[in-house]
Design brief:
The structure holds 2 protein chains of 2 kinds.
Chain A: E1 2-7, E2 21-26, H1 29-39, H2 44-47, E3 58-62, E4 65-66, E5 82-87
Parallel strand pairs in A: 1-5
Antiparallel strand pairs in A: 1-2, 3-4, 3-5
Chain B: E1 4-9, E2 12-17, E3 26-31, E4 36-42, E5 50-56, E6 60-66, E7 74-75, E8 93-99, E9 106-111, E10 114-118, E11 126-127, H1 129-132, E12 148-154, E13 162-167, E14 170-174, E15 182-183, E16 204-209, E17 216-220, E18 224-227, E19 235-236, E20 249-252, E21 255-261, E22 280-282, E23 290-291, E24 310-313, E25 319-323, E26 329-332, E27 340-343, E28 349-354
Antiparallel strand pairs in B: 1-2, 1-28, 2-3, 4-5, 5-6, 6-7, 8-9, 9-10, 10-11, 12-13, 13-14, 14-15, 16-17, 17-18, 18-19, 20-21, 21-22, 22-23, 24-25, 25-26, 26-27
The chains are: A alpha+beta, B mainly beta.
Chain lengths: 92, 357
């Protein structure tokens, strides 16, 4: 189990008690999001589509790497790493 | 007199207020900023209680509740979902919200086309498979920009009588509270299908009900219609209108014969006929129509009025409110005799409702 820090975009902080940074304990990105959903249940449906996949215009970075170029939700998250959630540049 | 409005747009929700007749409107918003507000519904028994359906291009579609007539909104943690494998997607967005008259049950029409019910104010949802798995469902197909159930009406004297529109798929009615459904399209043309009067498959743009009598009006891809037998048969009332296309239709809450419609040009162009923003009004249930458009732009108005963006409110005469897809908001306090511009530079207006005093 790793301890990681999640950086939330401004639009989602209203669903996380106005926090910009949330610390969670998890081994994979899926577990990171599940942990976020436990403490802040309104966050999860804004990150994941009803089928459980990452919403298409939600980008999640492990350090500087987009997790879509890693193992997606199965990406292992090392202890001490930073997860950054950002909206994609959609629409030009 | 109406003094407060909720206006749902492509960029959030706006709340308008005026101190009195003839006074300028104050605009508050955008609330739910950045979200497309697709539908709104006021609880019939709880003052100040509203629900809104909104969709954000990144964060998805969700339902929101307000207990103070729309000043503050909180997200619900649930949306209606299809069972897996019914459609390619379980949920895209909510397109229609309707409360039962006693406020005990909430219905939501969603994209992909389906109707769901909630008996706990949207906390959880029940599938209505009698409609959602209807044997004719294979004849439903996406319309432009949506594939949804909407315009659910509940008969005022028979709470088990429901009617809903599928775009496109046609209208369906239930006489047993939503367990069983029958197509309700007799007498309705379908210009986009080879058969002139098919049983199902119609692209219904809007169905509205006169709350006192249960009379129905319907605007379709081709034609405007009235039904006096809860959708068993429809009488076309397009004659006298300058076109048979349109989205918006509304009925005076105090008079089932007074109906309003905004004619649009062809399905290819989808702007008001002759670039004149006209509201047509009938005083006899659609037998005769005349323009009631004083104060509306009558030249170079390349606009459209969407299905939820024409609304009437009780009064004598009723008031009428309309918003355009170009963000112009108009109101008439005298049944359409004279219109006034309330706001000119809102985002694309998707729906609007009056807030009771």
């Amino acid at each position: 189990m790793s301890f990681v820090q999640v950086r939330l975009p401004g639009a989602l902080r209203t669903y996380a008690d106005e926090q910009a940074l949330v610390d969670v304990a998890a081994g994979t990105l899926a577990e990171v999001l599940a942990a976020l959903g436990q403490t802040h249940p309104l966050l999860l449906p804004r990150l994941l589509a009803p089928d459980g996949s990452l919403r298409p215009y939600v980008n999640v970075f492990l350090g500087a790497d987009n997790v879509r170029e890693l193992d997606g939700l199965a990406t292992q998250v090392p202890h001490g790493s930073t997860i950054t959630i950002l909206p994609a540049v959609a629409g030009g | 007199m109406v003094t407060r409005l909720l206006v749902g747009t492509d960029k959030g929700l706006f709340r308008l207020h005026r101190p009195g007749l003839g006074q300028p409107w104050n605009i508050e918003g955008p609330l739910l900023p950045g979200q497309s507000v697709l539908a709104m519904a006021r609880h019939p028994r709880r003052p100040g209680s509203w629900l809104a359906a909104a969709r954000h291009p990144v964060w998805g579609a969700h339902l929101y509740a307000s207990d103070d007539d729309g000043s503050q909104w909180r997200s619900l943690d649930s949306v209606p979902l299809h069972p897996e494998h019914r459609h390619a997607s379980r949920f895209e967005s909510v397109w229609g919200l309707t409360w039962s008259a006693d406020g005990a049950r909430l219905y939501a029409g969603i994209d992909p086309a389906g109707l769901f019910a909630s008996d706990d104010d949207g906390g959880s949802w029940q599938d209505l498979p009698g409609l959602n798995d209807h044997p004719t469902r294979h004849q439903w197909q996406p319309a432009r920009h949506l594939f949804a159930a909407h315009s659910l009406c509940i008969h005022p004297a028979h709470p088990d009588w429901l009617i809903v529109a599928i775009s496109s798929g046609g209208a369906y009615r239930s006489m047993d509270g939503g367990r069983n459904w029958l197509p309700a399209n007799a007498g309705v043309r379908a210009g986009h299908l080879p058969e002139p009067y098919p049983q199902v498959g119609h692209n219904v743009h809007r169905i509205v009900m006169h709350g006192g009598s249960g009379r129905l009006y319907r605007q379709c891809y081709t034609g405007t219609y009235r039904s006096d037998d809860w959708g068993q048969t429809w009488q076309e009332i397009t004659s006298g209108l300058p076109g048979d296309f349109g989205y918006a239709v509304a009925v005076d809450p105090g008079d089932p014969d007074r109906v309003f419609q905004v004619p649009e040009s062809s399905a290819d162009l989808r702007i008001v006929v002759d670039a004149r923003l006209r509201v047509f009004r009938s005083e006899d249930g659609g037998t005769h129509w005349s323009s009631a458009s004083n104060g509306l732009p009558q030249a170079h108005a390349y606009v459209t009025v969407l299905r939820e963006a024409l609304h009437t409110a009780e009064g004598s005469p009723c008031s009428v409110w309309l918003g355009t897809a170009t963000g112009h908001l108009f109101g008439s306090d005298d049944g359409g005799e004279q219109w006034h511009l309330l706001a000119a530079f809102l985002p694309r207006i998707l729906c609007l409702r009056t807030i009771p005093a």
